[in-house]
Structures are given as C-alpha cells and as structure tokens.
Amino acid sequence: MAFPGNLTAALRAGCAGLEVRDQPEELIPYSFDGTAVLQQLPAAVVFAKSTQEVVSVLRWSALNKVPVVTRGSGTGLSGGSVPVPGGIVLCLSKMDKILEVDAANLTLRAESGALTATISGAAEKAGLFYPPDPGSMKISTIGGNVAENSGGLRGLKYGVTRDYVMGLEVVLSGGEVIWTGNKCVKDVAGYTLRDLFIGSEGTLGVITQVLLKLIPPPAARKTMLAVYDDMEKAAHTVSAIIAAKIIPCTLEFLDRVTIRCVEDYAKIGLPRDAEAILLMETDGHPAAVEMEAAAMEKIARENGARSLKTAAHAAEAASLATARRSAFSALARVAPTTILEDATVPRNCLPEMIGFIQEVGKKHRLKIGTFGHMGDGNLHPTFLTDEKNRDEMHRVEAAMQEIFHRAVELGGTITGEHGVGLAKKKFLEGAVGRENVAIMRRIKLALDPHGLLNPGKIFDLSS
Fold first, then answer.
1. DSSP type of residue 217
2. Which pLDDT belongs to residue 327?
3. H/E run at residue 398
4. DSSP structure string for 119-163
5. Domain 335-418 falls in which CATH fold?
6. How far apart are CA 274 and CA 321, in angstroms?
7. Where are the beta strands (DSSP E) in 191-294?
8. pLDDT tens digits, one per residue of 59-69
9. Average pLDDT over residues 282-287
C-alpha cells in the first residue's frame, strides 16, 4: 500500500534531526546486499546515531504503517537486508561505539554498528579474545552478526555468534526498548528472550546494543596446509580427525576450482594441480598444540594427503589462512554473477555431500566452486554464472534445489550461517517442517503485529 503523500517529507517531520537520504543515486547502494542478484530500491534511507533515534523511527513506522528494513554493512548473503517496496532502510552503521570492555567480568559491550574486526581488536588490546570470525569480519557489523547468528572459520572449536552473546538491547516494532540478558554466567529467570532475537534476521526487533562474552586468548597456535589429489580423501581426513576426538580451531576446505581462482587472485603459492586442500589449525596450551598437530598430520597422510606444510611463524600462518579467507573474493572475479550458497550436513556425510555437489554441477552443466567450514559440516557451493543467461539461471536454481534437498535428506540443513532471508525462504518448510514455520509466524505476529519489521524475509505471514 502506497504511503499517502510525500513519505520522505513526513519522515523528516516525524523524526526531526535524523539524516535521511532519498535521491535515487543515494539509494542504490542500499538496494541490495551480498547476494547481489536480489535488488529493490527503498523509498528512503535513515541513519540513526542512537537508540533513541531508532525508537523515533520505529514509532513513526508504527504510526504510519511503513515497513522498516534494518541494515548494517549489507554483507549478508541471503537477501536479508534487501529493502521492500515503499519501505525505508534503517541503517545503524553510524552506531559504532565500543561502550565498555570489562576485563574483570570478561565482557565487552558495543553498539550494533561496531565492526566485528574492531570488537576483536578491542578484546585483543585488553588481553582477551573474541572468537567468532565471519569471513566478512573486517566490514560486517556486530548487530548484523547477531541478527544472522554468523559463524566463521573458528566455529568448529569455539562456536558461533550465539555462543558469545550475553545480553542485547532491542527496540521492538512499536518503539519499546528492552534489555535482555546480563553479565552473569548463570541466569535462568524466565524465558531466555535474548536467544529469540539472535538469528531472527531483523524480523522481530532492532538490535541496538550487544553484550559479548570474551575469553582468554590461546597460548599457542599451529597452522598446517594439506594438499590432496582426491577431494573425497580430504573429506575422509576431516571425518577421521573428528572421530579421533580432536577438535581443531580451524578445519577448512577448498576444491580444485576454488584453489585455482584463489591462486590467480592472491598468488600465495597454492598448487594449481591439486584437487583439494585442507587448512588445519590447532590452538591452546603449547603441549596440547604440538600433540594435536602431530596427530592431525598423521591422519592427513594416512588419508592420502600428498603433502603437508606447517607454518613456521605467525606471518606464514596468516598467509595460509588467506587461501580460505579470500575464496569468495577470488571466485567472484571469474564470472559476472557469483552465487555463494550454504548447506550443512553431519560431518560423517561430508564425502557423500561433496561428491553429490560435483555430480549436480556436471548434470546441470554448471561451474561450481566448493569451499567451507568442513570441520562443522558447513559447505559453500558457489555458482559461477551470469544472471543475464536465463537458461543457465534456471539450471542454477534446479541445482540449488537438489543440493538443499539432499542436505536435508542426510540430516542436514539449508543454511548453516547465511540465514534464510529472501533467498531460501521457499526451502524453509521442507527443511524444518510446516508446524515449525507456523510457530515462527505466531512469534512474529506477537512481537510485530503489523508485520513492519523486515517483512517477507524468512517466511511470508500468510501460509
């Protein structure tokens, strides 16, 4: 339903003092996120600099029934921050302060627009460690990380964003402000509302502050790169490492297509003839690190690694890690359109799932580069395509559907870290069941009765 009259004028009058942009050239950067192929111009973009300004925007939205899509840096990969027609984008990137580092209680409190890398740096400066490290951590915001429950390379050992959120300040759709959680290690007073907002993709409330748990940094770290001539042998190595009850800090995987793209892009000396590489990293007490590194090297060689390189120092370890961290950027240079997907299976199903992705690529005549967090079963099949080629895009969609269906058949899920957003909502019911989606709708309507917060994401309100 179109807003009666001039929306931007009404917004400026109702939210005096806020920065509002409404010129087409100003709106374009806020019309899409990291998925790229999904795009929609908003009616306006509003930049909030405080919780109170967020409150004023949501009160105005509720009064005028105008949809609001919250956004940080727009690095999401599921269309979660793509605007809706006639709606406004509420950008929180200017709410970027680190408010407190409490070393006594091992916590850090920040505004939601603070960059993940800034938070990591602030923790490090205090002699502490914030483990979550999404691939976009240099530019993604902590509020976006929480809204998407972001993972990262260290997720196998240290967990994901949810595992480090102790408290949240959230503004609800009508402008009410709540704080949920605290600095206590134990707290079972009532429902854990904090967890309801983590991973809710901006559909239940606007996160304005985050209280995070920090931990002591590991005393030692060792990084290794194993090279394989057979992709399934790399997958079997991962399964064998986990079966040996070793939980590395990082256990990452790149296939042949990705290796070649990364080497063309980063020129770090990767073997272009390899079928797969594993980035393996262990951290902790120096003695434990030495023991785990030796055990992983033995397992890798027993499972067919043709070579294994151990980083001699921190700079070399960072160089090896670049191979994985630059995977998406490297693949994105190859074709006009890069569609980075995200499916997760139980770890013992990795060899089968990797083989299935390869067969799907051949079946549909598509170029797919696969990499991911192999240690936690999270794979990123990446389609190198051209959105202008309609026939090829139909084949991409058919291939994605088969990949998601197979992941669910194997006891997995359609997304391990990117979220549902617009890109995967048609697959949600098949993954979690109709009853679960119905409960999600009821929760959404209880907290956002007019459906104004990020409408149309995750699921539609009408079944």
1. P
2. 87
3. helix 390-409
4. HHHHHHHTT-B-----TTTTT-BHHHHHHHT---TTHHHH--GGG
5. Alpha-Beta Plaits (3.30.70)
6. 17
7. 206-213, 220-228, 250-255, 276-284
8. 999 999 999 99
9. 96
How far apart are the C-alpha atoms of 96 and 112, rounded to whole Å? 6
Tell how strand 68-71 and strand 88-91 pair up: parallel
Beta strand 44-47 pairing with 88-91: parallel
Q: Do domains 98-213 and 335-418 have the same CATH topology?
A: no
Percent of the chain with pLDDT over 70: 99
Q: At what angle do helices 425-432 and 434-447 cross, to 10 degrees?
A: 120
Quote the pLDDT of residue 386: 93
For the domain spanning 218-330, the CATH number is 3.30.70.2190
What percent of the residues of the chain are helix, what percent strand, and what percent coil, each to the nearest 5? 40, 20, 40
- Helix (H/G/I), strand (E/B), else coil: 1: coil
Strand blocks (E) in 237-394: 250-255, 276-284, 305-310, 337-340, 343-344, 367-373, 378-385
Q: Helix or strand or coil: residue 373?
A: strand
The amino acid occupying position 194 is R
Give helix 51-64 / helix 7-14 axis angle, nearest 10°: 130
Domain boundaries, the chain: 7-91, 98-213, 218-330, 335-418
Residue 425: count of CB within 10 angstroms of its CB: 18
**Other C-beta atoms within 10 Å of 443: how many?**
13
End-to-end Cα spacing for the chain: 20
Distance (Å, whole) CA 219 – CA 284: 6
Backbone angles phi, psi at 180, to 5 degrees: -125, 125
Tokens linked to 1: 């339903």
Q: What are phi and psi of 417, to 5 degrees?
A: -155, -20
447, 193 Cβ separation under 8 angstroms: no
Q: Scan for tokens 């959120």, then name that residue.
A: 165
How far apart (Å, rounded) are the C-alpha atoms in residues 449 and 431? 26
Which candidate, 178, 202, 180, places its Cα nearest to that of 448?
Answer: 202
Q: Are 308 and 301 spatial neighbours (Cβ–Cβ below 8 Å)?
A: yes
- Of the pLDDT bands very low, low, confident and very high (cuts 50, 70, 90), residue 326 is confident
User: pTM for this one?
Assistant: 0.94
Decide: 86 and 5 in contact? Cβ < 8 Å: no
User: What's the one-letter identity of residue 179?
Assistant: W
pLDDT confidence of residue 461: 92
Taking only the tens place, the pLDDT of each residue in 48-58 is 999 999 999 99
C-alpha closest to that of 293 among 343, 331, 248, 226: 248
Distance CA 168, CA 412 (A): 29
| CATH hierarchy code of domain 7-91 | 3.30.43.10
Q: Which CATH number fits domain 98-213: 2.60.120.330, 3.30.465.10, 3.30.1130.10, 3.40.50.720?
A: 3.30.465.10
